[in-house]
Design a protein that fits this description.
Order of helices and strands: EEHH
Distance between the termini: 31 Å
Bound molecules: zinc ion
Shape: globular
Helix content: 25-40%
Largest sheet: 2 strands, antiparallel
Radius of gyration: 12 Å
Structural class: alpha+beta
Length: 64
């Protein structure tokens, strides 16, 4: 499976994404990558969720 990054925008600044990190599309701005990492719960965050039997994609309850 390949990802066409042109179809996705950076979730933080809205530019065309170039990376998929921590389950977020981001551009190559280190700040955006860092935001994705923090939003994800840090390194291994999604694996931790997986181990707990939760969905890998978080539902961000504090943003509703
Ligand atoms: Zn960005």
């Amino acid at each position: 499976m390949s990802i066409n990054f042109d179809d996705y925008k950076c979730q933080f600044c809205g530019k065309v994404s170039t990376n998929f990190v921590f389950a977020a599309f981001v551009c190559d701005n280190p700040e955006c990558i860092e935001k994705a990492r923090i939003e994800r719960g840090g390194p291994g965050g999604h694996m931790k969720r997986k181990a707990e039997g939760k969905p890998i994609i978080p539902d961000y309850p504090d943003k509703r």
